[in-house]
Amino acid sequence: MRNQRPAGTVPIVLVFVIAAMTCGGYERLMKTAFAAEGVDLWSLKKPVKSTVPELVEVAHRERVGNPIDAFILQRIEREGLSPAPQAERRTLVRRAYFDLIGLPPSPEQVATFVNDKSADAWPRLIDELLESKHYGERWGRHWLDVVRYADSGGYETDIYYRNAWRYRDYVVKSFNDDKPYNRFVQEQIAGDELWPDNLDLDPKRVYVVSDEKKRHLEARLGTGMYAFGPLVHESGLDAQKLCYERLTDWVDTTGSAFLGLTMGCARCHDHKFDPITQRDYFGLQAAFAGSIEVQFPLLTAMEINDTNQFYPRIIAVEEARTAYKLFQARVAGRELTAEEKEEKRQRLEAIALRVLELPRNAGSQPSSPYVGLMEVPTVSVLGHERPELVPTIRRLERGEMSDPRETITAALPSTLVQATGGSPSLPGPFGSRKELALWLTQTDHPLTARVMVNRVWHWHFGKGIVSTPNDFGMMGQSPSHPELLDWLAVEFAEHGWSMKHLHRLIMRSKTYQQASDDGAEKNLTIDPENRFLWRMNRRRLEAEALWDAVHSVSGTINLEIGGRPVVPPLAEDEIAALRERWQWPESADPKQHTRRGMYILVRRNFKFPMFDVFDAPVSSVSCPARDVTTVAPQALWGLNNRSVFKQANQFAERVKKEVGAEPPAFVERSWVIALGRSPTDIEQNEALNLLQKMTAEAASTDSANLLATLCLALYNTNEFLFID
Amino acid sequence: MHQTLPRREFLERSGLGFGSIALGHLLANESVADSASRSDPSGQQLSHKLATAKHVIFLFMQGGPSHLETFDPKPELVKRDGQLLPDSYKSFDLAQINTADAKLMACGVPFRKHGESGLEISDLFPHLAAHADDLAVIRSCYHDSFIHGPALTLMNSGTSLLGHPSAGSWAVYGLGCESRNLPAYIAMTDGMFRNGSATYSSGFLPAVYQGTYLRTEGDPIQNLTRLSQLNETGQRTLIDQLNVWNRRHQASRPGDSRLDARIANYELAFRMQTAAPELIDISREPSAIREMYGIEKGATARFGRMCLLARRMVEQGVRYVHLVNNDWDGHGECLKNHQSQAEKVDRPIAALLADLKQRGLLESTLVVWTGEFGRTPIMQGNRGRDHHPYGFSAWMAGGGICGGKVIGATDELGFHVVDDKVHVNDLHATMLSLLGLDHERLTYLFEGRNKRLTDVGGFNDLADRLCKG
After folding, report:
1. Rounded CA separation A613/A640 (Å)
2. Which residue has the higher pLDDT, A490 or B33?
3. Percent of all residues in chain A with a pLDDT value above 90, rounded to a whole number
4. Do A517 and B253 contact (CB within 8 A), yes or no?
5. Which residue has the higher pLDDT, A578 or A112?
6. What integer is the mean pLDDT of A396-405?
7. The pLDDT of residue A204
8. Taking 90 as the threshold, does the pLDDT of residue A263 lie above it?
């Protein structure tokens, strides 16, 4: 118990936490004598670039487009499977758009590709999409799952993180820039330590920030991923627990995201299955022990001064408010006279005017995007604690706070270091993150590249080569195609850790271009899970992609990039579960309501209701792979949600504007927009019959609504929701 | 582990629970317990104990009701009213009180013995007291979290870390759903959920297991009300046509059960539009019943309505009902606060027990009452009490429990548990046990570990003792 700790020790952990965090049965703990040296785990051996199989005597040699296909086809044939034919061009273009930018292709974009008979049409399409600024949004959102991104702290009060979005935008930019993944890792773990900089003005050019400083600022922004973890509002009551929980969140997230290893178990005992000992675990906590979250102004010192000169304007607002409160007190409990009513109006107006007078921008040449009323914009990033306040980290026997043992100094996990070579020792509370980041991004690190190429594979195919992307340990799945994984990992590092290179490689393969609807009986019997990729996996749109598709098709999508989270309006039944209404500050500008889904406020205590229904991650811990559930509330959303119907209406308006309201033309065009293809004759007839039948039944209040209802039906088709 | 994956796949494919019941042939009463034991050859079978309960109604008193004013009488505290807290207690952390100059505060309300068992209940609960012989009071609950947020998270999910499934999600994961038209797990509140929708979250379990927040007035479930632009016939026509398109789409895409499941879900959704409003329409309940729950009276109206709805849900096969009553956080004038709170819940809860009993449902329905912690034996400010997780009370009734008994004890001041400690994990283990689930085997592979509701605790499973006469 905390009060019983030996004098002079620093209590890092409270018993409270331990009860929640212990990881195996106590009876098993005693048996755990994990001999770290004896670990024989495939993922700890350095990847060697596998020899690409030479497929001479295979039945489908024409299916080898690049090395990926060779690995895949070899296995397919060995398993007695046969590969699916290439998907239709219409299917491919849709697949590519959703996959790379998360948006549906317009009818014109579909037609362009379908009619482009040149040999390089497909690679050119891929290149175009990779150059789109929406690529970073789509793939950035994938990464945000991994780092448990949220705009609030969760628990009771769900504290609002006012600048978490700057990290989100940093991620989008990093993907768009094709920032080398090793640099991306380095920036997030140790941007501050690797590129230290006061980020102050260049003394000779007062308002200009040098490019180098901008790069350093960007690097520092990466460490923002450590600043939006779960946070208990009242944790100030219990500072040591806060400290411990934060270190736990940091080490666990680092382990899951970059190493693909689950660290949590080692808090309490040597990891039963993975090569992480308790010492290793606390050694990593010690590596972070000297770090704290700091708020770093995004304005230069000059601009901050510019801002501060206007501070009297804030005082003026407050004084106007005080005047109003005094007035309220004076007239409390009685009817207002006509004069008093006028006075009230004037006093309220005075507040409003003072607020409107607040300058939105600071300084004459603000160098940073700036949102808010006289707020000095900041980023929350990692920095260093004052040396005398750095907590000592001790190993806690069985994770029990009442039982602190030896002091642990910062160190890399010993078994992993055996695999990479080098020394596990780290500099201490300061500078260790830098060493950790550099160690992780060694070209031949056994985990870093493998883990990331597997994630990319998972996001392209819906399933990783290792189907547990956050667990490359003994409890994880072994790879379905180990040689391919290693080949890709080495290829990735050799090509400057370029994400876009990986995308090109994967998408240009014939494997990626296979049809998803192949149903050869034999294949389905041998490999119903499609573990060996004899066909493409059909993907259900993720929550955000579905949102984006609905708004793209209706023509209302606002493709503005970045900025403060947007807050679309919610119906009474949707917002009911929110604790306080003001926690959902609706965006005033309707154009903001149709921004891409990834920009919608992510509250840990109140998921955006539609996202909640479509399996958005819980965002408290790293999410390696989203669930894909099929539940009735999804159908209710599609049938009854007011905002979906509004979009269906907009969709109908768009079609009418493009081809008029004559049913045959309307049906044709709406199909092309929503599904990227013309309706079949049967479908055309069915759609017309549906309209007639509903008219006869007086199903709807007017004919405009009938057309909107047809559009609603398209939103509800499986063809709209699933990408072949 | 390889063996555990098929289960996950099974879940993804079948969409068990709320959504999937429409796949009648696949699952009517099937639970993951069954499927896991079938598809998981690793030997990790859920040993099905004999279940005494099929449903749970969890009555959660949010804010933290004082054990000292409710179910844990402390004559010694009355004697030492106003004295300083003994030194041996002072090292404990509390949210808002400094223990150094804290004074003991007597309970302000008398306790009486009730029923044949002579169970002691405070005068705050005159109606509930009539059911003394049905209640098993646990006076030895404890944990270590003296802040609402983490304590609520702990009470709901067995750990104070975010992202874990709530107890109801685990129950549904283990037992599946019985209702054809309603969600398996429903949460209601008479104010708010202090922890938001995390309260009934399925955490890392698939979303099919998450609780559904049901509003007791207006539209009970989100997106349940048909669009004003489309009448019922029109919607039916629409769904019929949609089914044709979706089936044709599915026919050319073999081996993808998600497509089937989605078609089925439109039918379930269509039925729910009728079933859920019917559920909350209590106008046809006899006036005697409405009277019994106190629905016509001001103080008891809201919670009474929730309790009545809970009974109606259980009747229709809802597995787990989580009811939240707000505002037990008596930092100032604790007694006054508790009197007002008890007035809201006493009559409804008593009515719920009586009503379940008269319908023969109490035998199979476990009713649990507690809050996120108790309150301090020492005074805060103006006769208030601070948060106190080191010893507090809960009670259980129904679900096979033999009432009229007391489990465990706190010390003479009501500070620490001194006998038969019951951690939150133990409480959860007991609940699962009564449902026929072994808490150590109801697991889900996540982050490389077979996670469970009871974390690494749950050694003090009270089920056997509670069920003995």
Report:
1. 14
2. A490
3. 68
4. yes
5. A112
6. 74
7. 65
8. no
Phi first, then psi, for residue A414 (nearest 5°) are -60, -45
Show the 3-state SS of A612-643.
Answer: HHCCCCCCCCCCCCCCCCCCHHHHHHHHHCHH
- Does A30 reach chain B within 8 Å, measured CB to CB? no
- A262 in reach of chain B (CB within 8 A): yes
Fold entry, domain B49-224+278-467: Alkaline Phosphatase, subunit A (3.40.720)
Kind and range of the H or E run holding A89: helix A89-101
Domains of chain B, residue spans: 49-224+278-467
Give the pLDDT of residue A213: 86
Residues of A whose CB is below 8 A from B208: 629, 631
Q: Residue B461 contacts by C-beta under 8 Å, 6 or more apart in sequence?
A: B426, B429, B430, B433, B439
Q: Which residues contact B367 (CB under 8 A, 6 or more apart)?
A: B56, B57, B59, B352, B353, B356, B396, B397, B398, B399
Within 457-516 of A, beta carbons closer than 8 Å to B belong to: 467-468, 470-471, 473, 475-477, 516
Q: Do B208 and A19 touch (CB under 8 A)?
A: no
Residue of chain B whose alpha carbon sits nearest to that of A515: B253
A528–chain B nearest CA distance, Å: 7
- Mean local confidence (pLDDT), A73-90: 94
Structural tokens at position A193: 């330590």
What is the spatial distance between Cα A426 and Cα A415, in angstroms, rounded to a whole number? 15
Q: Between residues A156 and A443, which one has the greater pLDDT?
A: A443
Q: How many CB atoms lie within 10 A of CB B354?
A: 17
Do residues B269 and A635 touch, judged by C-beta distance below 8 A?
yes
**What is d(CA A579, CA A569) in angstroms, rounded to the nearest whole number?**
16
Question: Quick one: pLDDT at residue A203?
Answer: 60
Check residue A644 and give its pLDDT: 97
A27/B contact by beta carbon, under 8 A:
no
Apex CA B389: angle with CA B387 and CA B394, to 5°?
105
Q: Between A482 and A201, whose confidence is greater? A: A482
3 state SS of A40: coil
Q: Are A479 and A533 contacting, i.e. CB atoms less than 8 angstroms apart?
A: no
Q: Write a three-state SS string for A525-572.
A: HHCCCCCCCCCCCCEECCHHHHHHHHHHHHCCCECCCCCCCECCCCCH
Model confidence at A6, pLDDT cuts 50, 70, 90, reads very low
List pLDDT tens digits, range A527-573.
988 999 999 999 999 999 999 999 999 999 999 999 999 999 999 88
